[in-house]
What we know:
With 183 residues, this protein is α+β, with helices and mostly antiparallel strands. Helices cover 48% and strands 12% of the residues. β1 and β2 form a beta hairpin.
Amino acid sequence: MANARPHVSRRPPPELEPQPDGSLRFQGHVFEATIRPDGTVAFVDAPPVQGNGVGLTFDITDRIERAVGNDPYAYERRWFLESTQELRDDLASRHRDHAARRGVVLVWRQAEAIWTSGRLAAARRRALFELWDACDEDQRMVREAILDFIRAALPEDSAEAYTPAELRAYAARRTSRAPFTPY
Length: 183
């Protein structure tokens, strides 16, 4: 039997129960796990003392492992996380995409509010630049939405457009690494 393959059993994936809030719940024998709609996971360990209908059960090994700083359920958590990795990555990606789209809609509304505020055109242009410059470096979609708004509301050939002097001044004082290029 030297050439015999070792026996490897396949464990079925965790059974996830959809929840009304969009999360997914797993009830295991040692913990409950919740996968949130953004792909993050929260674990809640089963109580150390449990009733089984006849009496109480208590796992002394869990207490000893915890006392020396170990997680007695690390293997189970790892299995759960590895089994749900693809699902959680997909949820996280969809959540980020949704948040980015929502951010684009919100920033467009902010830009409209700035532009229709009734202030002097130079002050409104400065406020639009500041809105763009305040974006985090990884918010490219949001920044691009601001630039799209500028191109639509105050095109380069209009009387409301940024002047070359304004663009130079904003380039000199921007905090962003990205250049401010509305045109």
